[in-house]
Design goal:
Elements: H1 2-17, H2 30-37, H3 41-53, E1 57-60, E2 64-67, H4 84-90, H5 105-111, E3 119-120, H6 133-145, H7 159-170, E4 181-184, H8 186-198, E5 204-209, H9 213-221, E6 225-232, E7 235-236, H10 238-248, E8 252-255, H11 269-282, E9 285-289, E10 316-321, E11 333-336, H12 340-353, H13 358-368, H14 372-398, E12 403-404, E13 413-417, H15 424-434, E14 436-437, E15 439-440, E16 453-457, H16 464-481
Parallel strand pairs: 3-14, 5-6, 5-8, 8-9, 9-10
Antiparallel strand pairs: 1-2, 4-11, 6-7, 10-11, 12-13, 13-16, 15-16
The structure holds pyridoxal-5'-phosphate.
Pyridoxal-5'-phosphate is lined by residues 110, 124, 186-188, 191, 212, 214, 256, 261, 289, 291, 321, 323, 328, 333.
């Protein structure tokens, strides 16, 4: 975050200073800029790259940076008339009832960057200080030197990477073969592929309530109709799941059995069996979104196996990803399935995007095979536990009107129940004015929410200091809105 703002700042300064140089004149060396503005060489090179992209500066390898001889003339763009697109994008040419507009807000919410100065307690990825930046850089460098790194990868993914995911998903018993795994561009892509593969447009799909808004957005984008099934502290209510399968005839249930987003719930052993039983009896698939397995906190204890490991019959289509425990940009994940469903998934993926870029797959493989990997997982587990404790303690002490009913031993979030009648939107807006961004509960429900909620994240803040300050600012917002 800091790096990004210092790049913009330095580019702004250099843009103004360029007037002091005549066209073609050499600018101070990178080292001189580093010394003069007390920034890192990376900041200097990114700021120069920004000016180069604007046509204000040219760089010559070995010679340095120069003011561009003739700054690109600003062309006055002809004002176009795009109103015809409103008709073209919406007109129905067939009897299909699938809405053509796509609401991306559920996904954009996950990716939103808070305004300058605001603390981020809404994010769904690790703060840069928790990302394995060095190990990632080293993995990427090693990957780049691998023979054939820029060749086309096998369509389904690198075989060693598929084998690694198969072992992770199938567990010690080896319940899954590498040939049953496809490499995907992260979890979101795997989810969208699975939803499209398993249900036709217009079909109902059962989802946990509350659930990840990005999954709701993906389902709706394909014309699927999400139907909510409530979650409690033991995961999805399987009695209601069975009823919903019967009532809707749905053939897909989207489930997060481990550290569910947003509640943090873990599906109990008894309900795991029930989910598989009722799905099997209904002839329905279970999409298992196992996004948080590597986000178990230090005190989580042994984790349950994946649902996929207990399912030889191809009921479960498993989704997982490396982004959450590394960086949102390491967009490498996996889909695991058995039977004809695997063929359907494979076909959709290759038609949509061919394959995941090989250098990224090679880098992922380098990373998970390096000695830094287990160290990183241990660091994340310890840090997440410490941050969760700091946030939970702070909430209970300073925000007693926000009910924290469950403190999950995994994942990134606390799910807080607001007092009846509280205005979530007003509270999140007031929080932002006070300088902290938090997520309202509404987007996590696909139908009417039973109560107002707030989701607070502890992984996207810089540390305990920021969490404490974030809570202080949230207190101000609560004083303004809840009293
Ligand atoms: C529950 C859940 N599943 C899947 C994803 C997708 O993550 P990615 O595409 O980065 O793997 C997210 C991201 O927030 C999530 O919260």
């Amino acid at each position: 975050m800091q790096e990004r703002s210092s790049v913009a700042e330095l580019a702004g300064i250099l843009r103004t200073e360029l007037n002091r140089y005549s066209p073609g004149e050499k600018l101070p060396s990178s080292r001189a800029l580093v010394d003069r503005y007390r920034v890192s060489p990376v900041t200097v090179s990114r700021a120069l790259a920004a000016l180069r992209a604007e046509g204000l500066v040219v760089t010559r390898p070995g010679a340095g940076a120069f003011r561009a001889a003739r700054p690109r003339a600003a062309e006055a763009p002809r004002p176009g008339d795009t109103s015809w697109q409103e008709v073209a994008l919406s007109v129905e040419t067939s009897g299909e009832s699938v809405p053509r507009s796509v609401d991306a807000s559920g996904v954009l919410m996950t990716l939103a960057v808070p305004p300058p100065g605001a603390l981020e307690l809404h994010g769904g990825y690790l703060h840069p200080s928790l990302q394995p930046e060095r190990a990632l850089a080293a993995a990427l460098a090693r990957a780049g030197r691998r023979p054939g790194a820029w060749d086309r990868p096998p369509i389904d993914g690198l075989s060693e990477l598929r084998a690694w995911f198969a072992a992770e998903i199938g567990g010690r018993a080896g319940a899954l073969a590498p040939s049953e795994v496809l490499i995907t561009a992260g979890g979101q892509s795997a989810l969208t592929t699975a939803l499209r593969a398993l249900a036709p447009p217009g079909a109902p799909v059962l989802v946990e309530s509350p659930t990840y808004p990005g999954a709701l957005a993906a389902a709706r984008a394909f014309g699927l109709r999400p139907v909510p099934v409530p979650v409690d502290a033991d995961g999805v209510r399987t009695d209601l799941l069975e009823q919903a399968l019967r009532a809707t005839g749905a053939r897909v249930f989207l489930c997060q059995p481990l550290f569910q987003n947003p509640t943090g719930a873990v599906l109990s052993a008894e309900r795991r069996r029930e989910v598989l039983r009722v799905a099997r009896e209904a002839g329905a698939f279970v999409i298992e979104d196992d996004f948080a397995r590597r986000l178990a906190h230090e005190d989580a204890g042994p984790l349950p196996a994946t649902l996929a490991a207990d399912d030889p019959d191809g009921v479960v289509v498993h989704v997982c990803s490396l982004t959450k425990v590394t960086s949102a940009s390491l967009r490498v994940g996996a889909l695991a399935a058995r039977g004809p469903a695997l063929e359907r998934l494979r076909a959709i993926q290759v038609v949509d995007s061919f394959f995941v870029p090989r250098p990224l797959q090679e880098a992922a493989l380098e990373l998970v095979g390096s000695p830094a990997w287990p160290r990183h997982l241990r660091t994340v587990a310890a840090e997440l536990r410490a941050r969760r404790e700091a946030l939970a303690t702070g909430v209970r002490r300073d925000l007693p009107e926000l009910a924290l009913r469950h403190v999950p031993p995994g994942g990134f979030h606390l799910w807080l129940r607001l007092p009846d009648g509280a205005d979530e939107a007003a509270l999140t807006a007031a929080a932002l004015r006070a300088g902290v961004s938090v997520a309202p509960g509404r987007p996590y429900f696909c139908a009417e929410p039973p109560a107002p909620h707030l989701r607070l994240g502890f992984a996207s803040a810089a540390g305990a200091g920021e969490l404490a300050e974030g809570l202080r600012r949230l207190r101000l917002a609560c004083d303004e809105v809840l009293r």
